[in-house]
Amino acid sequence: MPELPEVETVKRGLAPTMEGALLVRAELRRPDLRFPFPENFAEAVAGRRIVALSRRAKYLMIELEGGAVIIAHLGMSGSFRIEKGPIEAGADAAAFHHPRGKDEKHDHVVFHLDGRSGPARVIYNDPRRFGFMDLAQRAALADHVFLRGLGEEPTGNALDAAYLAGRFAGKVQPLKAALLDQRTIAGLGNIYVCEALWRSGLSPKRAAGTLVDKRGRPKQALFHLTEAIRAVIADAIAAGGSSLKDHIQADGSLGYFQHSFSVYDREGEACRTPGCRGTVARIVQAGRSTFYCPHCQK
After folding, report:
1. Considering 11, 48, 55, 58, which one is annotated as catalytic?
2. Is 58 considered catalytic here?
3. 161-292 CATH pick, 3.30.750.24, 3.40.50.2300, 3.20.10.10, 1.10.8.50
4. What 3-state DSSP class applies to 244?
5. Is 6 noted as a catalytic residue in this protein?
6. Which of 206, 219, 282, 288 is catalytic?
7. What is the CATH number of domain 4-143?
8. Alpha carbons 296 and 176: distance in angstroms, whole number
9. Beta partners for 292?
10. Domain ranges of the chain
11. What pTM was estimated for this model as a whole?
12. pLDDT tens digits, 56-114
């Protein structure tokens, strides 16, 4: 499933085309994705100008004039692509700079836009249909069923060691599970938790509460972990995310952070920590694969 850096990359790729454009109409080619579209979804968004694109956790937000917000989730295999120029009868409408790499039979939603550089279409493609779209009001987003209770963003200044100490104090829960709890950190997923734990030298099996002292203050290891989380997310965004399985960017290009993985999906390979002679191991925690070095992650 695309994680936060992938969604942030998609947002940045779509923004130049979508922000400021008039959403002329939304073409729904089926009644549902993972869930049915909201009633009168197409009618509600047609004729609205797109004010901004934003992201919360792993959700893409398409903010419209008048206060409406389209909430989009990519699920397991969802992706957006951009086509520009007028549609010519009997011809492929898009001249792609990058190969499309997607079967058009899985094009389920088409946003027809009129932007600064002319007509364009933003197309949502999803072979498995685990993604979804919903419609909400900006003023009520914090209480939306998908968004309420989410923790701090790993890209914001609010995520610091003191905040995590308050969440981890007294917890015997494994550190890996504690970090995947979306009520603690919004949008942090399996890949980047594994990478951040390796960078900070912490075992995924370690109890989260051991990073907090008796006074509830963060230990030095928690400062290192916080810095590692922020750094790995920043590095992944800069690399365009990780193109595992179905993830591609809005222009059809691939993310490259997977070439920088230090532990994820590297079972049996030598640990990359300088001076470490350990080997990357794989264990299963709460049904998810965890990759780490038992030798240097304590």
Report:
1. 58
2. yes
3. 1.10.8.50
4. coil
5. no
6. 288
7. 3.20.190.10
8. 16
9. 281
10. 4-143, 161-292
11. 0.86
12. 999 999 999 999 999 999 998 899 999 998 765 333 333 332 333 367 899 999 999 99
